[in-house]
Amino acid sequence: MNMLIYIMILLSSTEGSRATEVITPKSERVFALEGDNVTLSCIYSGSVRGVHWYRQYAGSPPQFLILEYSGVTTEAIPPVPRVTINHRKEERHVDLKISSATVSNSALYYCALVPTVTGNLITLYKNSFHMLKP
Questions:
Q1: Are the C-beta atoms of residues 94 and 67 closer than 8 Å to each other?
Q2: Angle at alpha carbon of residue 66, lines to 26 and 87, rounded to 5°
Q3: 17-49: per-residue pLDDT in tens?
Q4: What residues make up the domain containing 54?
Q5: CATH number for 73
Q6: pTM: predicted TM-score of the whole model, two decimal places
Q7: Residues 4/104, Cβ–Cβ less than 8 Å
């Protein structure tokens, strides 16, 4: 039996010394079935060198998933299976792609920018990823 995957994107940010780098979720909700390919998307403004993703399970600290920085992709060690990043700099758009989603993908996801201006804090956005029975 397939389970319904429900993704809700919530906004939460830390303030940097300048507000030129802003990141927002592309949509607030995404629905999918277990086994589907799922994409979490964020759109940003300003000039950034990199974008990275974290996930957090209830009661645990955030876990680094993947980073794209100046055209180079760095994965967690060990790499998180079935997770990839697609950073389209010209469009200022970044996707976290989860292939063949399972219950273990149910977590809180963070999309974060690495700003080009030294001294700015990283801006975080929460992406809540839930799986519910239909």
A1: no
A2: 45
A3: 345 677 777 766 666 778 889 898 888 888 788
A4: 12-26+36-101+110-123
A5: 2.60.40.10
A6: 0.76
A7: no
